[in-house]
Amino acid sequence: MKVTIEVGNNFPKVRNLLEISFEKKPEQEVRDSLCVAGVKWHNSLSCWYIRNTPENLETIEKIISGELRFKRERRRRRR
Can you give the pTM of this predicted structure? Predict the structure, then answer.
């Protein structure tokens, strides 16, 4: 699957963000790992984003390569 990581300037109030785009929707495990790592989804731009730091870039690259996975706890719905 093709993945694009670039420093984007599409956000009007914030600069120096990494924008992560996938060719197809990534697996749930990858999406959960991105969320736990602090990466946010931008609905109108259809990309993931996080502040551009060397640590964040390294974490993203490890998640995409499959070297690093985080498990996100699912909330139980109240009945």
Answer: 0.79
Sheet holding 47-51, edge to edge: 3-8, 17-22, 47-51, 40-42
Q: Is residue 48 within 8 Å of residue 8, measured between CB atoms?
A: no
Q: What is the pLDDT of residues 41-71, one digit of tens each?
A: 999 889 999 999 999 999 999 999 988 877 7
Task: Determine how many CB atoms are found less than 10 A away from the CB of residue 9.
Answer: 11
Structure tokens at 27: 């697996």
Give the CA distances from residue 34 to residues 19, 22, 79, in Å, rounded to whole numbers and listed in that order. 12, 12, 29
CA 33 to chain centre: 8
